[in-house]
Amino acid sequence: MSARRVLVLLRRKISFWVSTAVLLSVLLLSVVGPGLTPYKPMDVLPVRAQPPSPGHPFGVDNLGYDVFSATVYGLRVSLAVGLIAAVVATFIGVTAGVLAGYYGGLMDYTMDSLAMFLLTIPPAFILIMIGAFYAAGGEGGAAMSEFERILFLGVAVGALSWHWTARAVRSQVAALKISDYVYVSRLSGNSSLKIIVKDILPNIGSYVFLVFVIQLANALGTVVTLEFLGIKASDWSLFARVVQWLQMGALIAGVWWAWLLPGVIIVALISSLYLLVYSLEEVFNPRLARW
Amino acid sequence: MSLLLYVLKRVAAYVIIFVAATTFIWLLVRFAPGDPALASAMRVMMAPGVSYTKEQMEEFRRRAIEMLGWNLPLHEQYILFWSRLLAGDLGYSTYYSAPVAPKIRELLVRDILLLSPAAVISWFLGNWLGAWAARYRKLDKVLLPLLYILTSTPYFLLGLVLAYTLGVVYPVFKPTLTSSDIDLFLTTPSLETFKRFLHAYTLPFLSLVLVSMGGWASGMRSLMMYELETNYARFLETLGFSDRKVAGYALRHAINPQVTGLGIQFGTIIVGGIAISSIFNYPGAGIGLIYAINFRDVFLLQGIIIVYIAMVLIACFIVDLVYVIIDPRVRLGMMGG
Amino acid sequence: MEPLLEVKNLKAYYRTFFGVVRAVDGVSFELYRGEILGIIGESGCGKSSLVQSIVLPKPPLYVVEGSVLLHENGRTVDLAKLDSKARRSFLGTRISLVPQYVMDALPTVRRVRDVLRDIAREKNPDYEELRRLFIKRLRDVNLDKSVLDRYPLELSGGMRQRTILALATLFNPDVLIADEPASALDLVSQRQVLELLRQLRDEKIVGSVIFITHDIASVRQIADRVLVMYAGKIIENGTIEDVVKEPLHPYTKVLISSVPPLGVSYAERRLEGLRGAPPSLLNPPSGCRFAPRCPYAFARCMKEEPPLFKTEGGRLVSCWLYVGR
């Protein structure tokens, strides 16, 4: 698929433009947002439980935090963890998938077993265990700086979610391996490494990109849920205070802006990622398109 | 390879996974920074509110170490852990001030009550919806964004939305439950307790079903779209089969991967259930887990995780068996065909 | 004698993102009862699209113009004008298509008898009777009735091909269309399938056969008449003897001579080929479509498209060389 063809097809796809627009807006918010607000996420204000107003576009929650600040700072943290997780998962997954798909045999079997392990054990469980002792703010957690916590959480989430990628990449590579041009490449005496780098990797490039985006979407979902459960990289992580609010009866008191507004942003982010993959899939694989 | 051999192989695989996961968890607990296990054990022995001298603390520490078996060599500790586990002893919970195992049993019953129907119903609804979307383009255009939004919504968020809209703004249901809402119906079923049960149960149930349904539906949609373009579909069309008949065949093919997915999904829905439980105060593992995390209640945490891992593995195993029945390719492969 | 099937100026195009592909661009021919008609041409010439558009045009393939007249039992039906529901009553009963892709034409998770049961439900006859008929049909194609209880995976390629033939000929269709019936199979099975097609016609199980291939040797085996297709058009139409012994169109000449004869070594006579490739059907050239590659092309060929013309000898050919002869 030449680049020109891809662009022509993309131009007509509304889903692509919508998803990209939403994605970029959210990203912009996380980058520029903190500059737009005078409040820091940890600043406790003298007011409580105020609905959105000109001074506080997202309102103030019932603990005294400006929700907009909490959202944009928290978005940064969640995105950082999510991105690291997606990078790690994609990297491990692609490597494992390529090795398993190309060499087969023992490597394939090992990868398959590990993948099956991760498939059946919800990674969230293990992450809860790790997070509870190493990241949630216990004795272990407090010892790390915020940056270290972000890194740690990101790597942990990524290291437990590569199995899907590995399986997908493996079948692609296995199919490519028996294709004619790889056969010719081998006949011309290229070493395995050279074949992998020169012939196989470039051809799974677009596929890997799609996989990365999906991993990012999944990672964000996982990260946000973990934050809710108390496994957070920083105290102002997006939904880290929800449980506290609930216990204070915030829901019944009608304080909807504190969780709905950040919620809408996160859902928009994740669904735009899925939509992006959907629109790109129809372009990369025209058979799926409906005339 | 016969059916029996296949079953044994699967059982062996799941047992290995269980042992590996449990061992990993045990290691995590054993070597966690700050020795939370030790701290928990000590807390159990001490009376709250009383201040102790340094010597007394030392004494408690020594006794805790002995109770946990930390004075033994590592491999003996491991064996001790397993012997206790298999005997049903999961330690003592500092939060509930009660042994962990019976407590988990309580939580488990209520969780199964919530999760199993949610998992199964969302599977059926989702697949049915996805199949429809694949067949009718107009429906698809409207449904697809909706489905994507549903899958992208974290369980707890939808729980919040439902709790707020249908529990607070229009108080049709209860946004916050008490354990008696659920338990009363189980112990003394009657129309009254059933109504009360529904009043409490519906929102958490809906949250789980709606989000899971989104995932199943979008998956089934892709699968059906693929199956409807296959060679056999085309051949049946040239034989003069109606669209509906061909869709029936496509569905039969598309459903196979969805069945495999059901076992795996069970793990995801458990995690979702945990989140939902904490929002609605549904008396399941969710709350237990949150308290365990916040109160550093090690044994409760460890116990819940291990038991639920076992549950997921059992669910996967059951799904494996079902899959063998429905897919002739696997069956034929096994009868030496 | 009235033809069984009459295709008149059929045009079927693919609507794609990049434009309209004119896969079948004004095809006309007649098929008589009891005939085996072969359609030959290279890959991409439009032969599969032709039969698709006759039997079941599906988006992105649309029938843009023309008619497909089926004359049976004194009535005439234009298949091209039917809506999908009406068309379905003809498919599998009066006109059947045996596809190219034999290996996965049968649904993997159902046994053969399940498909048969569904056929009964769709077409309305009694299942028991249909079953008996099918078993008889199986015997005609040299298969045992145990095939009924099998899954497609348990059948070899040749067996699947024959099962499909049995299913397609259950209702004694007037026209049986076989799209590359032999290409997915090994040589021995190929021969068997061709023989089978002839047998089906001889025993009047089917009214007539259209069979599509790129392999001239197999056409020679069983066809009575042959159509040669190139770039979406029919360029020659005649009896198999005529076309093989005396190919008129330059393209047909190359096609016929491209088959290496037995007993002649490479040193004695080299294989002839044709340089270039068929034109893009997105933007077909004006004038004769074969002109760019034709060794005999002259000025008129580049400008005007030749019609399908009847020579004095009664042969049909689309080439300016023969106009006025």
From TrEMBL, chain A:
SUPFAM superfamilies given in the database record: MetI-like
Topological relation to the membrane, as annotated: Multi-pass membrane protein
GO cellular component, one term: plasma membrane
Molecular function GO labels: dipeptide transmembrane transporter activity
InterPro entries in alphabetical order: BP-dependent_transpt_permease, MetI-like, MetI-like_sf
Residue ranges of domain ABC transmembrane type-1 in the record: 75-277
UniProt key word Transmembrane: yes
PROSITE patterns hit by this protein: ABC_TM1
Stated family: Belongs to the binding-protein-dependent transport system permease family.
PANTHER family: D,D-DIPEPTIDE TRANSPORT SYSTEM PERMEASE PROTEIN DDPC-RELATED (PTHR43386:SF1), OLIGOPEPTIDE TRANSPORT SYSTEM PERMEASE PROTEIN APPC (PTHR43386)
Protein name: ABC transporter permease
Organism taxonomic ancestry: Archaea, Thermoproteota, Thermoprotei, Thermofilales, Thermofilaceae
TrEMBL record, chain B:
Biological process according to GO: transmembrane transport
Recorded superkingdom: Archaea
Cellular component, GO, one term: plasma membrane
Entry's transmembrane regions: 12-32, 112-134, 146-173, 198-217, 269-293, 299-326
Membrane topology: Multi-pass membrane protein
InterPro entries hit by this protein: MetI-like, MetI-like_sf
Pfam family, one: BPD_transp_1
Major location (coarse): membrane
Record keywords: Cell membrane, Membrane, Transmembrane, Transmembrane helix, Transport
Every ABC transmembrane type-1 domain range: 108-323
Keyword Hydrolase: no
Record's subcellular location: Cell membrane
PANTHER family in the record: DIPEPTIDE TRANSPORT SYSTEM PERMEASE PROTEIN DPPB-RELATED (PTHR43163)
Family: Belongs to the binding-protein-dependent transport system permease family.
The protein's name: ABC transporter permease
